[in-house]
Write a structure and sequence with these properties.
The chain has 97 residues and is an alpha+beta fold. The chain has helices at residues 2-7, 41-47, 51-58, 80-89, and strands at 10-11, 17-20, 26-28, 61-64, 69-72, 92-95. Helix content is 32%, strand content 22%. Strands 1-3-2-4-5-6 form a 6-stranded mixed beta sheet, with helices on one face.
């Protein structure tokens, strides 16, 4: 997972992040003038797995700042740090796979 984090820029702003890891690390969505420059599929392509496998194996949450949704799998555990960040940022957790 550390290699993936090195491949993408990180942010401390959950309103500009598109992924939230169990330790609180967030991948930057590369927003420019309100438009996201990085697509969620970058992680899927890098890992070569389904979204359910990615969520279950890494614990990553897909963030969609445009709609205030935090996407998880039905069998995914949300860490305490992730839950704190989501609560403070106003994201709604949505099970989608």
């Amino acid at each position: 997972m550390n290699n993936l984090l090195k491949d993408y820029g990180l942010t401390t702003n959950p309103r500009e992040a598109i992924f939230l890891f169990p330790d609180g690390a967030m991948i930057d969505g590369e927003f420019d003038y309100g438009c996201r420059g990085l697509d969620h599929n970058c992680l899927k392509s890098s890992m070569g797995k389904s979204w359910k496998e990615i969520h279950d194996e890494t614990g990553v949450i897909r963030l969609v700042p445009e709609t205030d949704e935090a996407l998880i799998s039905g069998s995914q555990a949300v860490s305490k740090i992730q839950r704190q960040i989501l609560n403070k940022s106003g994201y709604d957790i949505e099970v989608y796979c």
